[in-house]
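Input/output pair, single chain:
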Amino acid sequence: MKLLFMIGNAAVGKMTVGQELMKITGLRLFHNHMTIEPVLEIFGKFNGEAIRRFRQVVFEEFAKTDNYGMIFTYMWAFDQQSDWDYIEYIKSIFEPYGTEFYYVELVASKEARLERNISENRLKNKASKRDIETSNRRLLNDDSRYRLESREGEIPFENYMKIDNTNLSPIEAAKMIKERFSL
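Output:
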């Protein structure tokens, strides 16, 4: 099995590139809002513990299958040890099954991300982003509070690539990933 972490800042294109990558590989997409949106709907507010436990069940059950693999999208704050620990925790669920791990970091300009923040696909799949003013404010706030782009050489993992997709279509980025990792 393969587990591909698609990481990057808000509205960088993780879900959209993941959707295209799923179309051209046997990987299944598990984007982070697949757990965030139902929890927001049920609880009426963000509940991090419920989201974490929901994801845990999905990871544990998926790891046991004979599926080719999964793409998991995640907004990783590189200056937060808890985010590094979370990636290791997810890996620990899959490791007993001989999983191969891949890491794709997407980066794009703030202007491109603000444009993408209001794209039809994003708003269709992420109800919590439909209040554009609040969503834009959250994007800018996250930019100022966290370091959401890795530094040169910071990612120590094999099977890692960084793509500036500011001027790439999602399918172009997906094809680059597929080719690089022979997926």
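Helices lie at 14-24, 33-43, 48-63, 81-94, 110-116, 120-125, 132-145, 170-181. Strands lie at 2-8, 27-30, 69-74, 100-107, 160-164.
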